[in-house]
């Protein structure tokens, strides 16, 4: 989430830089208005798009190879992937950083919404104080003892102390705001200010659109009277304004100079509209960035963990294969044969196959064909989980079929690990946050846990994980072709220290 917000702010900043450098001084007011309204929305949408063509265009060595959940071991492809175990230190639970950020964000929204409500109340109080009249399709509200002048949709507020000449110029100006629905633009940015109150660029966007709306209205009125006369009238006014940010204010002292400068500018040449084509490479660059970057800190953490343990390229591919098998669940007979073929150790005198597919093509229709002359010795090795006839059985899971026994064992091991894991190890090792532990172990032919190995960011976590796994009760061993065999398991543990 934080990565998404940072990307959005960066894109908005880039769009503002393009506007200030290339578009702000041009008189293409309608196009600039579309630009200022569209680019904030585009900034929110772009981080959500991932274009595979961009990702594939990058050489593979520049991409982060994401690790699988199953880690370590020469025969990790043979292990049974157990469901991840989450252990939380609930005895001393405090709010997590993400929860604190969410609370601050919601509180900020409430404050921003309160400020907006105050503006709305102030606006309606002014409306009640004034005297209503109509001019063409506009509502005119005269404010007593005031020289203010501003509009809200089709309602124009005029101070009673303004001269008739001033009122005439203001009406021409505010009619443009009403006709082009400029108030809707300001309300759009008011909504963004409430939701993204922490983003200063939203306020900059609103300021830019306010300036542009005045340029649009001035340009329209200047066509109906000499420009020199119009900006001389601007300079001669006694300024009094309103601080309601979603109204179009005629007397805005900070904008008067900019409005006069823009009135004196000659109309931009049409050839300069090509500047808007700059959006194409800018948007493409943003899409390129979002398509080729990792979104979550979790992915980075896992990548760092794997890189620190020195996994080879082959091991990485094995992990990927294991993860794919876990996601799919049940394998087809052909897939089981292919997996068995890869897991069987080659011996002198065995036939050499150039690919797994060549082996499958030759043995098609012969599901019991031997991969090797020495396959009869497979019962002395670790058996692939996809090929095993009967999985090991945890106490309490007896009398179930193979699939039910797998699920039962996974749940039993989850519960056993959660109940026996010593959460005080976090305090001893000064650990905080999310700690990931990967354990691989074997249920041997006698039903005992053997050859347990663990990998974690801290050695104390590895020691505790191994202690828990090695204290598991004796189980009924797995069987293949009626013979007891060794079966490997991979157990991921997520230890949350709050």
Topology record:
Blueprint: H1 2-23, H2 29-45, H3 52-56, E1 80-81, E2 85-88, H4 97-129, E3 131-135, E4 138-143, E5 149-152, E6 155-159, H5 164-179, H6 182-195, H7 200-222, H8 227-235, E7 248-249, H9 253-264, H10 279-291, H11 297-308, H12 313-328, H13 333-343, H14 356-362, H15 402-420, H16 425-428, E8 433-443, E9 449-455, H17 459-470, E10 478-480, E11 483-485, E12 487-497
Parallel strand pairs: 1-12, 2-12, 4-6
Antiparallel strand pairs: 3-4, 5-6, 5-7, 8-9, 8-12, 10-11
Q: How would you describe this protein?
A:
It is built from 17 helices and 12 strands. The chain is of the alpha/beta class and 498 residues long. The protein folds into 3 domains: 1-49 and 265-295, no CATH class; 76-92 and 296-497, no CATH class; 97-263, no CATH class. Strands 1, 2, 8, 9 and 12 form a 5-stranded mixed β-sheet that branches. Helix 1 (2-23) runs antiparallel to helix 10 (279-291), helix 2 packs antiparallel against helix 7 (200-222) and helix 6 packs antiparallel against helix 7. It is elongated, with a radius of gyration of 35 Å.
């Amino acid at each position: 989430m934080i990565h998404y917000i940072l990307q959005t702010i960066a894109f908005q900043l880039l769009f503002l830089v393009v506007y200030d450098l290339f578009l702000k001084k041009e008189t293409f007011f309608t196009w600039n208005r579309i630009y200022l309204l569209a680019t904030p929305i585009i900034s929110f949408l772009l981080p959500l798009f991932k274009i595979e063509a961009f990702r594939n265009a990058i050489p593979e060595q520049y991409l982060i190879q994401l690790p699988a959940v199953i880690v370590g071991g020469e025969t990790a492809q043979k292990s049974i992937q157990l469901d991840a175990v989450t252990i939380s230190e609930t005895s001393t639970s405090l709010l997590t950083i993400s929860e604190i950020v969410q609370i601050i964000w919601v509180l900020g929204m409430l404050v921003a919404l309160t400020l907006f409500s105050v503006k709305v109340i102030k606006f309606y109080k002014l409306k009640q104080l004034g005297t209503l009249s109509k001019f063409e399709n506009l509502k005119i509200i005269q404010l007593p003892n005031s020289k203010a002048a501003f509009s809200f949709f089709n309602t124009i507020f005029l101070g009673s102390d303004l001269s008739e000449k001033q009122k005439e110029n203001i009406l021409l100006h505010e009619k443009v705001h009403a006709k082009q629905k400029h108030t809707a633009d300001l309300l759009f940015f008011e909504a963004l200010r409430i939701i993204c109150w922490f983003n200063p660029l939203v306020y900059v966007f609103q300021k830019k659109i306010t300036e542009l709306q005045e340029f649009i209205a001035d340009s329209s009125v200047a066509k109906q009277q000499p420009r020199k006369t119009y900006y001389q009238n601007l300079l001669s006014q006694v300024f009094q304004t309103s601080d309601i940010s979603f109204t179009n204010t005629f007397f805005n002292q900070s904008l008067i100079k900019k409005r006069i400068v823009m009135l004196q500018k000659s109309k931009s040449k049409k050839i300069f509209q090509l500047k808007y084509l700059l959006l194409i490479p800018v948007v493409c660059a943003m899409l390129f960035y979002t398509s080729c970057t990792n979104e979550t800190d979790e992915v980075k953490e896992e990548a760092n963990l794997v890189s620190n343990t020195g996994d080879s390229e082959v091991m990485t591919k094995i992990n990927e294969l294991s993860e794919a098998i876990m996601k799919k669940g049940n394998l087809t007979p052909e897939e089981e044969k292919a997996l068995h073929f890869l897991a069987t150790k080659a011996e002198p005198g065995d036939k050499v196959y150039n690919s797994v597919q060549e082996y499958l093509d030759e043995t098609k229709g012969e599901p019991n064909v031997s991969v090797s002359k020495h396959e009869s010795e497979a019962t002395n090795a670790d058996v692939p989980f996809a090929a095993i006839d009967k999985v090991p059985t945890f106490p309490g899971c007896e009398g179930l079929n193979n699939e039910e026994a797998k699920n039962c064992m996974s749940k039993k091991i989850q519960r056993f690990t959660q109940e026996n894991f010593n959460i005080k190890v976090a305090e001893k090792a000064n650990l905080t946050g999310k700690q990931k532990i990967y354990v691989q172990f074997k249920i041997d032919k006698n039903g005992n846990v053997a050859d347990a190995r663990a990998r974690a960011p801290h050695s104390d976590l590895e020691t505790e994980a191994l202690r828990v796994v090695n204290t598991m009760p004796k189980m009924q061993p797995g069987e293949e072709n009626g013979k007891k065999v060794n079966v490997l398991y991979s157990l991921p543990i997520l230890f949350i220290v709050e």
